[in-house]
Design brief:
By secondary structure, the chain is mainly α. The chain is built from seven helices and four strands. The protein has helices at 12-25, 29-44, 64-83, 88-105, 107-111, 113-127, 185-190; strands at residues 49-52, 55-58, 152-153, 156-157. The strands form two sheets. It has a two-stranded antiparallel sheet with strand order 1-2. The protein has a two-stranded antiparallel ribbon with strand order 3-4. Helix 2 runs parallel beside helix 4 and helix 2 (29-44) runs antiparallel to helix 6 (113-127). It is flat, with a radius of gyration of 36 Å.
Length: 200
């Protein structure tokens, strides 16, 4: 048998897919993707020409430079969401504003397609939050019921068995009768009533 682990024999596509999934989960991936997809039609359509047989339709407008600037800014904001996700809220708000501005400037927001994608990407970026690992919390100790005596464990009292609103002199040692593990706490307390002490 070979001493090599099974992880070294994995296909490189499996390793790449696993690493890409980890990278995608640490940032607003879909927000950046939708924002960049929305910026492409906004920047492209004002400079495109449609050919219908022998007829050429030019979709360029007087605001062609504005459409190009909005499209490039949306693509830049999408890349910012991927590689600098600490400013994802700013990038999302800017993408939403640029999508709204593209309606009157860039051919109705890239024929509504770029507007919808940019708006969705900005909203996803604003609402995205990094996931926090679940902290393993120790189970809380149940408080002692009222009227019950504090538990006596191994020669000392448990601090969580005392009521929180009363003062207890935990720093002063309490003199009790000789402790017998088999005897309950009440039996040991009865021997000390009346101020008696085994030594006295």
């Amino acid at each position: 048998m070979s001493p090599e682990s099974t992880g070294q024999n994995e296909h490189y596509l499996t390793v790449f897919r696993r690493g890409f999934r980890t990278w995608r989960g640490n940032r607003p991936f879909w927000a950046g993707l939708f924002t960049m997809v929305g910026g492409v039609p906004i920047a492209y359509f004002p400079y495109a020409n449609m050919h219908l047989g022998n007829v050429t339709l030019a979709m360029s407008t007087t605001a062609g430079a504005g459409s190009l600037i909005i499209g490039v800014l949306l693509i830049t904001l999408g890349l910012t969401m991927w590689f600098h996700h600490i400013v994802r809220v700013f990038a999302g708000v800017a993408a939403i504003l640029l999508a709204l501005i593209s309606i009157p400037v860039a051919n109705i927001g890239g024929f509504v397609v770029g507007f919808l994608f940019s708006l969705l990407g900005g909203a996803l970026s604003v609402s995205w939050a990094p996931g926090d690992p679940k902290a393993e919390s120790a189970p809380a100790a149940e408080p002692a019921a009222e009227g019950t005596e504090p538990a006596f464990y191994g020669g000392e009292f448990r601090g969580d068995d005392f009521p929180a609103d009363e003062f207890h002199g935990s720093a002063v040692p309490r003199q009790t009768a000789s402790y017998e593990p088999s005897a309950p706490f009440g039996a040991a307390a009865e021997k000390t009533e009346g101020g008696g002490h085994r030594a006295g």
